[in-house]
Amino acid sequence: MMNLTGSEFLTRFTMLTDQAQFPKDLLPSAIPSLMSDPLDEFENMPPADKGQQPGHQKQEELFETAPPPWELAVQDDVATATIVFSEAPHGPYDYRIPDEMRDDLKPGMRVKVPLGHRKKAMIGWCTETKMGSSASRTLRDVSEVLDDDPLCDAHLVRLVMWMSHYYQAPAGQVFDTLIPSSVRSNAGTRERTYFKLTRRDIEDELIESLPPKQQQAIRFLIMSGRPMTSAQVMIGADCTISPIKSLEKKGLVVSEARREMATSTPMRWQLDDGETETKHELTDDQSVALGKIKDAVDAEEGKALLLHGVTGSGKTEVYIRAIEHVVKFGRSAIVLVPEISLTPQTRGRFERRFEGVAVLHSQMTPAERHFQWQRIRRNEVQVVIGPRSAVFAPLPRLGLIILDEEHDGSFKQGTAPRYHARKVAHARAMSLKIPIILGTATPSLESWHACSTGHADLISMPSRVGNRPMPDVQLVDLKNRDDRTSGAISRPLHQAVVDTLEENGQIILLLNRRGFATTIQCPSCGHVVSCPDCDMPLTHHRDGGKAVCHYCDYTIGTPPWCPACRFDGIRYGGLGTQRLEVEVKSRFPGAKVARMDSDTMRRPGSHQKVLSAFRSGEINILLGTQMIAKGLDFPNVLLVGVINADSALHFPDFRAAERTFGLVTQVAGRTGRGDRGGRVIVQTFSPEHPAIQAASRHDYEQFAHDEMNARRKFNYPPLGSVARIIIRGGVEEVTESTAESLVRHFESARDKLGHEVRILGPAPPPMSKLKGKYRFHILLQAVASGPLGEVIRTATDKFVIPEKDDVQYVVDIDPMEML
């Protein structure tokens, strides 16, 4: 087995003869957070030590200096495969391909190979096969090829390598992210035995010499002209399994095992009674937008298009018409949505317009997800819909990628590899020379800045369909005692709910915190009941009388008295959706109320059930977390209430104002979509804050102008590039010492390379302990992502953490939160 340096490995990938390349001129480094080109770094990556992947502990030498007898010398005609692993050591390593496997093994397949002194073979991913020689090195053999066909085509293999380099994650780990575990485990499949003739020219004399039942079986196989299952042969030839087995023993028939999907029917969206899809005439804004998108599709150059349309402007209809244009050319599309709750509604609209629609999301059973994935790979669908992981859908003829609500933070993966679906989608689109549409009423500042610098085209849709007015927004200052009540609902909002119910209108109430009470505190000694593993307050859930940590799921029964001083009089502070639900039902006893949050939406189909009931008018008041703020279209919603607009505003995060503006604007857009108009009431302690003021006026451009000026002072994205390193360990002092040592490595690498990179920390983050691990973080800032990535790679390449320290670190490129 031969260990490749990082530069050797990556140089080989620049020579891949795949049809889709990642052109450097289409990913300009001037826009580091959205459009930067990590391929400049990719092609000039410094050599790495054996087994070393950026961001992971360097491995010790795995093999003896003198090769043992089982190793084979590499000859000129030896075929080799480059293999990477999702577990350390991550590789890449070269293996010899046995002659009998040469035609079977291709990049994008999984293999079993020996690794080090492990007794059990390891499963790895093949990234390249080649012919070569290296007389001074010896290789071990590939033990087994696990897949009949590549799970990743050449384009997706290339995407894996780009993601591995840019996000500094092991390539094997990225492969595991692209290919769902349900596919890797063959969920919902079964192995069936097929029988076929060993040769077609069997003499009549030989057939006639066989017993009658064997004659019937062999004549049936000759007539069928293809392999048949034992059941098919027994029915077609009117025989038992015995004659078939006899033919196999005589060498006239051979059996082969095939893995197939179990009989299954794809789940289709059940339309609500009376629900139809009418193809309306486009508005002027929609027509102009569609024309620009069609031009981009026809140009076949690869282009990013920011579709900035106010809520209710008809962006979804533009998406559908654009996909219809793509489908005419035999191509397909991916539509990414931020919330699983949006998937049923979005799927319903698309299924009424397209024959083949597939959905991929985490609430599907493994068998369902595998079934859909195979449909997609066989090119049986025209549209794939799903959250961020659907960006990897293996469509053979992809022609368009759409991100709906592209600003949403849920497109960022929270665990390794910490990719952003918007950036990955952009890289995939540019490599295939197809358009990517970024649709939203509140663009991310990264996308907005890309337009202002010429790296994306802006398409504006400033008016609602039917020229309906934007809803009036009323700010309620919660510092004003006259407006406050003893509960969560202010006097103005209470009266507005009463008026709306009298008009037979529907109401949406947003509170972005689940649970009943966010703190459980003793009024006598001040003790706060907290999670022992996360050092965060437990949230009281009235259902079941539980106190739950929303970060690690630690759960106890809510204590009836103080655990510290035994005082009998525990108090519940703060507000969650459960508590709001109790108050709403008490204030408006005649109203039918439903709650949507991650506690109530755990079961498959629960989103669809509640939203269908709301659409039909069975529910008067829908309250919940941010999942009710996006993309929902209900014409009878006359009132939207934001219970606490400050919940995300004062987080220690430079994106806090952007999140607040987006959330308030998006939920406000759920009303006023029908003929009766609508209104919005926003409760806040900070009515003067620029983000809330801009949201109340539906003024995105003013918000973007103010926020860009605020970020310019500190070179925050999109005006600069940021990386976050999170160090975590079981012992606080050891973890902090490791973080300080890592900072010194960063400083040394920066000085050696001569890059202008600002290094902040280490310091405890707001969540200083999570899941039993103490945490410190380091921030690195630079003007562009290239120098930043090079400093991190250079530093971590030489950084070794003793195994006894039990400390790990993760690299988060372009972080979306600082907790």
Automatic annotation (TrEMBL):
Signal peptide positions (record): none
Record flagged with keyword ATP-binding: yes
Cofactor: Zn(2+)
Reaction it catalyzes: ATP + H2O = ADP + phosphate + H(+); Couples ATP hydrolysis with the unwinding of duplex DNA by translocating in the 3'-5' direction
Binding site for Zn(2+) 1: 522, 525, 562, 565
Subunit comment: Component of the replication restart primosome.
Family from the record: Belongs to the helicase family. PriA subfamily.
Protein name as annotated: Replication restart protein PriA
Natural source organism: Rubripirellula obstinata
